[in-house]
Amino acid sequence: MKVRVETTPQPTASYDVVIRAGVLAELADRVRSVAAAERYAVIAPGDVAALYGAGVIRDLRAVGLAAELLTFEPGEAQKTRAVWAELTDRLAALEFGRDSCIIACGGGVTGDLAGFVAATYMRGVPVVQVPTTLLAMIDASVGGKTGVDTSAGKNLVGAFHQPRLVLADPLLLKTLPDAELRAGLAEAVKHGVMLDRAYFDWIGERADELLARDAAALENLVAGSVAFKAAVVAADPFETGRRAVLNFGHTIGHALERQSGYALTHGIAVAMGMVVEVAAGQLLGVTEPGTLEQLVSVLRRCDLPDRPHVTSLDQVVAATRLDKKARNAAPRCALPREIGAAASDSAGRWTHDTPENVLAAALEATSAGARNV
Amino acid sequence: MKVRVETTPQPTASYDVVIRAGVLAELADRVRSVAAAERYAVIAPGDVAALYGAGVIRDLRAVGLAAELLTFEPGEAQKTRAVWAELTDRLAALEFGRDSCIIACGGGVTGDLAGFVAATYMRGVPVVQVPTTLLAMIDASVGGKTGVDTSAGKNLVGAFHQPRLVLADPLLLKTLPDAELRAGLAEAVKHGVMLDRAYFDWIGERADELLARDAAALENLVAGSVAFKAAVVAADPFETGRRAVLNFGHTIGHALERQSGYALTHGIAVAMGMVVEVAAGQLLGVTEPGTLEQLVSVLRRCDLPDRPHVTSLDQVVAATRLDKKARNAAPRCALPREIGAAASDSAGRWTHDTPENVLAAALEATSAGARNV
What we know:
homodimer, seven-stranded mixed beta sheet, alpha/beta, two-stranded antiparallel ribbon
């Protein structure tokens, strides 16, 4: 399967996301045609490099491409300006020039970090993304976001840098830890809730196959989510309008992540965030009654949390104030009107004022496991 | 005067360069209309901030805009990832959000450094450039290049980030050190040599007025160079073809700069580089005989060096090998065919193989002050 990502307003930067079991074997031929370069730098965390690094380098060299493997320590803690600087210094020490290409091979951290290296090395060199986690395949493949974290916030510095090509090979997910598989499912559920009822239902029906890593089911899941996200991003390249629907679950999700000291993974936190935000949406009258029950049912089938695990309601509510999207005091959440459709307000905006007392009530109701709000 | 910079392939990023004595006083009104933001951060080196910082902040606040002044130590040595990181940390500490705008107020270092801050803070915020040196007005106003230096090279990391607006006020040049004024003139001479004979002649005729900082003459100079550069950049946004003509003087200029330990300013080094490269062009038969004499005559009228100051020919030649543009062993130079016209080779390329022995002969002939090569 293949999804064409149209990158308005710069259509020349449009690219393909190719999704197919076994497609990693085509990497060398494909980069040669869409990202011809003098030299290739494959950037991967140590664990991914141990699994796939040697094979990728061998394949590239086998077709005559000059390729080097650059590794870094795995983990979200490596997504820093220091590691970014070190990788660019290593490229310079290896005398990579402007006619180089970066191949980012790993999960979301790698895509963001190696993508930011590509965005900034000699003012930008092409990048090919080879996501190795489900979350990276469905979320990071589209949008061109790159960046690193600072102590002041996640992705505080970064750039938009569209890849030349994304190769998503569901066979790579065989080695993915369970928690990371579920994190990707949470993001797919988000797309279903906000964009397509049939897709939402399909995830519920095929949850067992997806959790068993059936390649055909995962291929359909990735292709569906990538296509939804590509359509939303193409219609709103500057994140000024409808693209905000993709933030569903993230206002509370980010707050829960931060409040846990990042012990919660992003996807798990987003699942919890969706539950709380839908509860808040129902309290506000924005979201149809009964939506929370349907969401919880599919989350359970996907082995995802059906309630927030919070220790301090006050801290979570306070953390939402630091959210980038909260321009003033009241947090704004992207909310569904019902399963499969995002809600806009009377002014046509895709986020909704969510007073802290409503969030607190939603948190309290859902953290206790109550379904009726 | 106003030059519209068309930024293909992303026409929505097109912007104006406004060139007029006294235009700085219009900054607040103009940024309000072309770069509306919640908050403005004026980034300037300490020396520029001392001259203009308080006035700019006062003007912005007078029309109701929220503005803060962020300063850094002056000097090329500050154009680093460390200072970039510090500036972004200060923006974060001051809680600047995505709806902020950077106003870069200073010379080339400031434009590059503050531009890179703008390019990367929260994945990019708008930037308005207020160049305060002649070189920055005529060279950095067009092209959207931002970046910082590393030990491995100048501008080794950076990004393309088009400004929303450039305000070039020749009155600011009253306080510019002589050496920096001449550095800007060198860049303007480069445009004349490669692009327009009448402009070249005009610089020679008006050199005295330009050196005396006559505002009307400087306005014409800046407007001319900006218009030439904008036309070249618009026709070749990705620097794959004709834009290379702007590198005239830079292959040798960069090598001389590096070999001097950056004791030579960029503009002075480029003047010397033009002399050597034209001599090489004549030796190669690419450049018409007599071109060197005309170049030297105008450089002298502009109080610019008419020969390279070199201590080691071998080191200069070796340094050209490290040039980004030298893809293989032989350096490639952008050369004029005659004054006012760049030379392309039979394959339509705008740079020319310049063997090291030819460069060495050109260096030797010109450093001795010989005019006939």
